[in-house]
Amino acid sequence: MKPAKSQPVFLQHVLRAIDAGGCRNSLAGMIDILNVIAALLTIAFGAFGFIAPAYTAAALDLAPTNSTMGYSELRASVGGLFVIAAIAGIWLNHPAAWAMLGFAYAGAALGRVVSLALDNPPVTKVLIFGGIEAALAAWLILANLPRLKA
Predict the structure, then answer these.
(1) Taking 80 as the threshold, does the pLDDT of residue 8 lie above it?
(2) Does the residue 109 lie in any domain?
(3) Residue 111 is inside which H or E element, if any?
(4) Residue 66, burial from CB neighbour count under 10 angstroms (0-12, 13-18, 19+)
(5) Residue 123 CA to chain centroid, in angstroms?
(6) How many domains does the chain have?
(7) Can you say how many angstroms the Cα of residue 34 is from the centroid of all Cα atoms in its chain?
(8) What is the pLDDT of residues 47-106, one digit of tens each?
(9) Residue 105: closest CA among 134, 63, 144, 68
(10) Position 22 in a domain
(11) What is the span of the domain harbouring residue 119?
(12) pTM score, two decimals?
């Protein structure tokens, strides 16, 4: 899958990342494809916080107070941070970059566990969001750390 020069640069990076494993090594090819899928999911999830912080706030049971600083925080931490981290993973296409995205998800999942212990949040939402974060963390870390050359 060679990217054509007329394709947008981002799409060229996605296709290059998917094809990085090559056809000869099906396991590496599968890992590359799943890494890109994880990154595209991350971009989609992050886009909600980045573009639609009011919607994200409502989904997370957050309410604005007397300022819009909460929306700014959602755009930054829930949105921009994850969108750019995922784009960087696709652009760099290196096991360390993919693992680092996984560590970001691990931190989010750990935050959910701490919240379960201390905050008495809605358990179903925490388990759904935390489960997605834990699954993406596990995949990105366990699939990519062994690919680092010592």
Answers:
(1) no
(2) yes
(3) helix 95-118
(4) exposed
(5) 22
(6) 1
(7) 12
(8) 999 999 999 999 888 887 889 899 999 999 999 999 999 999 999 999 999 999 999 999
(9) 134
(10) yes
(11) 9-145
(12) 0.83
- Is 23 inside a domain boundary? yes
Q: Are 144 and 35 within 8 A, CB to CB?
A: yes
109: number of Cβ within 10 Å: 20
Burial of 88 (0-12, 13-18, 19+ CB in 10 A): middle
Cα distances (Å, whole numbers) of residue 123 to 20, 49, 117, 119, 128:
40, 21, 11, 10, 9
**pLDDT tens for each residue of 27-40:** 788 898 999 999 99
| Six-digit token string for 121 | 């949040």
Structure tokens at 24: 């000869």
Residue 25: per-residue pLDDT: 63
Does 40 map to a domain? yes
